[in-house]
Design goal:
Number of domains: 1
Shape: elongated
Radius of gyration: 21 Å
Strand content: under 5%
């Protein structure tokens, strides 16, 4: 089972449990779960594209002149800080 399938199962279970525990008798869980399953299926069927081909562009690449690359982040990278 993929991570996406596992996440989908968790979402379905959460919806079902919420409806059962909350006493929502007029709630169409089947319709909602069907829509969510469709969204997950669409996401899973897409082939990821590399960041260099991002249709929204790269802010550090010139579409936003004020954006700096992560290597020049004035706040630093928390991952570079030593754990104490």
């Amino acid at each position: 089972m993929s991570a996406l399938d596992s996440l989908l199962d968790n979402v379905k279970n959460a919806i079902t449990q919420h409806v059962q525990q909350g006493g929502h008798s007029n709630f169409d869980t089947g319709g909602l779960i069907g829509k969510i399953t469709d969204l997950f299926g669409k996401h899973q069927s897409q082939t990821p594209i590399p960041a260099s081909k991002d249709p929204y562009g790269d802010p550090a690449g010139g579409t936003r002149a004020d954006a700096k690359p992560a290597s020049q982040d004035p706040y630093g990278d928390p991952a570079d800080e030593r754990k104490r």
